[in-house]
Amino acid sequence: MGKIRVLSEVVASQVAAGEVVERPASVLKELLENSLDAGAASLEVEVRGAGSALLRVTDDGGGMDREDALMALERHATSKISTADDLSSVQTMGFRGEALPSIASVSEFLLRTRAGSSPGGTEAVVRGGKLVAVRDAGCANGTTVEVKSLFFNVPARRKFLRSAATETSHLDHVVETVALAFPAVAMHYAREGRTVHRLAPASGAAVRVSDLYGAEEGAQLFALAPRESGGLRISGLVSRPGVTRADRARQFFFVNGRAVENSFISAGLREAYRQMLEPGRYPSVFLYLEMDPQEVDCNVHPAKREVRFRRGSLVRDAVRDAVESALREARAEWLRPLRTHMATTFGPTSTARPAIPSAALQPELAPAAVPEARTARMVAPTAPPAATPATASSSAGAGEFRLIGGLSARYLLLEGSEGLVLLDRRAARLRILFERLQRGLGEGGVAAQRLLMPAVFELSARSHEAVVANIGALNSCGFGVEIFGGRSLKVEALPDFLGSRDPQRVLEDFAERVLSSGGTHARAALAEDAARRAVAGLAAEPSGPSDERHDRALVGQLLSCELPYCDPEGRPVMLQFSWRELDRKFGRA
């Protein structure tokens, strides 16, 4: 008897704070979300001591009278929901009524607020969860919250904070996230007494991205044409093909204004960018999803970072289709002047074939086994160029794109009106061969290799389910798979390109890819995997001197590809060095 007791209100609040208040950035996020829910059109943020010494947020929202101000400091007190049914259609940033009392329990806390209809304001002071003072205050309409000495009364939490630089970077990320989610809201962000951002209300995401990260980075983004499907509307910005980063710091997903993390959104993005990203590189993405609040559950994570969709596969497919559409448009825009310049300089190259050494091809990759690559859709010049490639002026003007020649046996160097382009000959061959094979495989030209003895084995329940759901796609790509009772499968054939691999390991790997993508594996994706594995054997570097005829044909064939700027593994095929970049490297103004 006597072992179980009810925690005091102060201790209970500190326990709750452990879920809501992870670090100073968590506090800032909650305060900003409260301000947005109050209808703020302007936000002032001040930070000192990496957020541990001071966090101050001032807004011009609706404010509160004295009764509401004191009620807001009580646990589970909120104006945003009233019944459990309201959780299924939450449209505000906050809704649990935990943030303010949790923050006040682990800090020196001040709330100063005034509602528009009140003759004066109210100031409440809380220290470590205990209300110290309540008094009248002269203040403008809106609310100011000051949080000082965060975790002063829970030193165990304070010692687990990271360095000032790390905590500051998290604070910066919160400010950027809110600024991107609500571009129409003005923001002033000061850190250690110095202004970091002063953001005027923006007309849209593109303007706000440029305000935050600079016009040069904003120019690398391509707008998604707003798309609507199944009640889901998607808009936003994605980085142009070939423009990547070493981290995901510029990937933002918003659902009804809330910044979220979700595996279905991530899977859709990965599918859209497949083949375009080399390992360890990531695109910049700013995606805005709008849907019926009843289609998304935002009450599945203490900090409301993760959400759950009622129809996750719909979201994944919609994200994939929207981003793919934008990337196709960006590719066409990027290739149009390049193809025109190549045609103007070299003339049509539609009948030329890339110089792919037959000795480097495995038997199943012989050109006769697959359809010919599509001819390049080059725009023929209306008149012969004034100069041949060999005698063209070294300062290329508008409408010219000159092949300078080869660098050793590996690269080609081209000159255009915007700068220099360095082309990897081997990567170009891989891309051309990959797309030729992919088209052949996509049309059903996959040779199957029967096993000497059928393989029968069991898979885990989830892996078995993933394989069975995709058995039709597998068998149309050269597999011979049958259900053999229970969780057992029988494999009688594998595609030629998989050679002598262990059938069980092959299907386990396949199931892992399906499960990680959150759904079925389309036949096109299987054909893509097949082609990628097949061309992986083409590893030899080109040898011998550069041949101008073959080089011109290679460039023409490359520009007829769907993704001419990256090889099948996402590594770059072409690198461009602008005149501005070269001038900067040489110290020219």
Summarize the structure in words.
With 589 residues, the protein is of the alpha+beta class. It folds into three domains: 9-199, Histidine kinase-like ATPase, C-terminal domain (Heat Shock Protein 90, 2-Layer Sandwich), CATH 3.30.565; 220-329, Ribosomal Protein S5, domain 2 (2-Layer Sandwich), CATH 3.30.230.10; 347-386 and 395-589, MutL, C-terminal domain, dimerisation subdomain (formyl-coa transferase, domain 3, 2-Layer Sandwich). It is 33% helix and 23% strand. The protein is built from 17 helices and 22 strands. It has helices at 9-20, 24-37, 66-71, 99-104, 155-158, 164-181, 205-213, 215-218, 263-272, 312-346, 425-442, 461-469, 471-475, 503-517, 523-535, 548-559, 579-585, and strands at 42-48, 54-59, 108-114, 121-127, 130-137, 142-148, 186-191, 194-199, 221-229, 232-239, 251-255, 258-259, 285-290, 296-297, 308-309, 401-407, 411-416, 419-424, 448-458, 480-483, 488-495, 574-578. The strands form five sheets. Strands 5-4-3-6-2-1-7-8 form an eight-stranded mixed beta sheet. Helix 10 (312-346) runs antiparallel to helix 16 (548-559) and helix 11 packs across helix 16 (548-559). The radius of gyration is 30 Å and the shape is globular.
Secondary structure layout:
Layout: H1 9-20, H2 24-37, E1 42-48, E2 54-59, H3 66-71, H4 99-104, E3 108-114, E4 121-127, E5 130-137, E6 142-148, H5 155-158, H6 164-181, E7 186-191, E8 194-199, H7 205-213, H8 215-218, E9 221-229, E10 232-239, E11 251-255, E12 258-259, H9 263-272, E13 285-290, E14 296-297, E15 308-309, H10 312-346, E16 401-407, E17 411-416, E18 419-424, H11 425-442, E19 448-458, H12 461-469, H13 471-475, E20 480-483, E21 488-495, H14 503-517, H15 523-535, H16 548-559, E22 574-578, H17 579-585
Parallel strand pairs: 1-7, 11-13
Antiparallel strand pairs: 1-2, 2-6, 3-4, 3-6, 4-5, 7-8, 9-10, 10-13, 11-12, 14-15, 16-17, 17-18, 18-22, 19-21, 20-21
